[in-house]
Amino acid sequence: MISAARSVKTAGSVRIPTMPSQIKYVLASDIGGTNMRAALADRSGSLVARGSCATEPEKGLPSAEERLRALFEKVASGVPREQVGGVVLSSAGPIDPTTGVYVHPPNLPGWHGKTMKPGLATSLNLPVTIGHDATLGALAESRYGVGKDAQHLLYVTLSTGVGGGIITNGQMVTGAHGHAGEMGHLLVRPGGQSCNVGCDGCLEGIASGGGIARATVTAIENGRSTRMLEMVGGDTSAISSQIVFEAAADGDTLAVEVVESVVDAVATGFADILNTLDPEYLVVGGAVTGALQPYWSDLEALIEDKALPHFKDAVPLYVSLLGDDVSLVGAAAHAFDLADSVSG
To answer: For residue 2, is it within any domain?
Structure first.
């Protein structure tokens, strides 16, 4: 159990834990569909200690909670406990940021209606706050990334899923239920391939890693020939988005068609959000973003074609400088914001 001395302010009948003035560190985590990561962060945004493990959502939320607790204990073991403040969990959603209860999360099957917030707060003896991973990613990009000091910034992650975060007037936008920024469910191809929660033709259904693989396998099952079958020894279950991009780079006809479809879908979604929210920066991260780099000029040209005229030749599209750490850094920044607001 992590223990940190805290005083308590009383507001009516509500007891509010305050943070000690000597806080130098906070704990941050990033819970994704594939991996969970935890870090000890300092006030500069540096992740001074870190650990990771497989999420394995199929084993249930309690199992994941215990493994995450162990990660936190490990990364915090090298510093005085009284210097460690609160915890912010960055998680794939949808998730209620107040209770930490998951709401039909497509990439965390079996976690709907459950939360690890109270359990971790008790076992770590620290205040625990929940944030959507992409929203915290947007915060990180506006504090430390390519959009540093931006007042209006969007962050989109193209990876196992597709998510988004919004910064307006320098503040995170979370919406009435904490679900703002679910850009992965923009309908970019109505009636098209579904995501894991059944949105037909949404950006996540088409441009996520799983969506790319599913589209490829469906085409093969419908009789399309491709060298990708040789690449996976005839086992279509082994086809991944990485395989598709590798085959496209080698000129495989089906792979090229799938990738072109992905680029078009991403351009449609990005044009929609640029038109709607008019940001200074649209910052993009995630594994699929990395794979799209050879097609970046095509993507920008398509966005210009689909977006409003004032975006012509001035698409504010940027690749994240923070990489895989973006949500961890955002969670740490939010944890310090909360600690300072309470202690102040």
So the answer is: no
CB-based contacts of 309: which residues, under 8 Å, 6+ apart?
A: none
Q: C-alpha angle with apex 196: 134 to 189, nearest 5 degrees?
A: 85
Is residue 252 within 8 A of residue 239, CB to CB? The reply is: no
CA–CA distance, 190 with 136 (Å, rounded to integer): 29
Per the CB < 8 A criterion, the answer to whether 164 and 134 are in contact is yes
Q: How confident is the model at residue 332 (pLDDT cuts 50, 70, 90)?
A: very high
Instruction: Judge whether 196 and 184 are in contact, CB under 8 Å.
Output: no
User: Is residue 197 located within the same domain as residue 313?
Assistant: yes
Three-state DSSP state, 5: coil
Instruction: Decide: 81 and 3 in contact? Cβ < 8 Å.
Output: yes
DSSP string across 173-224: ---TTS-TT-GGG-BSSTTS-B-TT--BTBHHHHHSHHHHHHHHHHHHHTT-
| 3-state SS, residue 146 | coil
Q: What is the pTM of this model?
A: 0.85
Given a contact cutoff of 8 angstroms between Cβ atoms, the answer to whether 47 and 332 are in contact is: yes
Q: Assess whether 102 and 129 both reside in one domain.
A: yes
Measured CA distances, 127 to 21, 44, 66, 157 (Å):
15, 21, 17, 28
Give the integer Cα–Cα distance in Å for 119 and 112. Answer: 16
Q: Put residue 208 in one of left, alpha, beta given phi > 0 → left and psi -120 to 50 → alpha.
A: beta
- Number of domains the chain is built from: 2
Assess if residue 53 is contained within a domain: yes
Q: What's the pLDDT tens digit per position in 91-111?
A: 887 888 889 999 988 889 999
Same domain, 213 and 276: yes
